[in-house]
Amino acid sequence: EAQVTQNPRYLITVTGKKLTVTCSQNMNHEYMSWYRQDPGLGLRQIYYSMNVEVTDKGDVPEGYKVSRKEKRNFPLILESPSPNQTSLYFCASRNPGTHRFGELFFGEGSRLTVL
Amino acid sequence: ILNVEQSPQSLHVQEGDSTNFTCSFPSSNFYALHWYRWETAKSPEALFVMTLNGDEKKKGRISATLNTKEGYSYLYIKGSQPEDSATYLCAFRRGGADGLTFGKGTHLIIQP
User: Fold this and answer.
1) DSSP H or E run through B67
2) d(Cα A42, Cα A36) in Å, to the nearest integer?
3) B98: which chain A residues are within 8 Å (Cβ-Cβ)?
4) How many helices (DSSP H) and strands (DSSP E) are in chain B?
5) Which residues of B touch A (CB under 8 A)?
6) Looking at chain B, which terminus has fewer C-beta neighbours within 10 angstroms, N or C?
7) What's the rounded Cα separation, in Å, for the pair A3 and A5?
């Protein structure tokens, strides 16, 4: 089954404790992206990657890092989480070749709480 | 900063009734307009990707129209069913950009 898998789905952590949210897709998609969803706001892009070893900042990159060492994986790293990073995070992917207008395939979301 | 507005923010509709809601977006440098359906605790799923002015797309009881000149899209649901309850997101992609700008969504609740 074609899917985007995120882990963990739920996490409560404390300020300053480094964490990584993993994202993996099995569709051989070149493009991957991270979004955050906050109450009263639309999904906002954090980082994206056009292909392996190519990453770029989105609209709200502060406090986050990413890496793209393999095509299927795109982890989101919070080096020193703060309470304002409490949010629902979505990973998404697409294949620019077959979905050139940008249809995204989303993971199920990771709800992160930073105390 | 691109402005993508959806209205209404939330909507209660009686089962069997038809409904519609709006997405407005910048009318310049248009590339694509997406509609996604997002059920609680699930992944947002693409409903439509619309690219041409005047486009109309349909999937079962759900359809969408696009007016790129005036910068709006309508999503229609005919004969609402409880399983239509979800948040409907629209997202705008401008020419030359890789990312999408999302609206805040319309939260639709179908009442039996």
Assistant:
1) strand B62-67
2) 9
3) 31, 48, 50, 56, 102
4) 0, 11
5) 4, 31-32, 34, 36, 41-46, 49, 51, 89, 91, 93, 98-105
6) N
7) 6
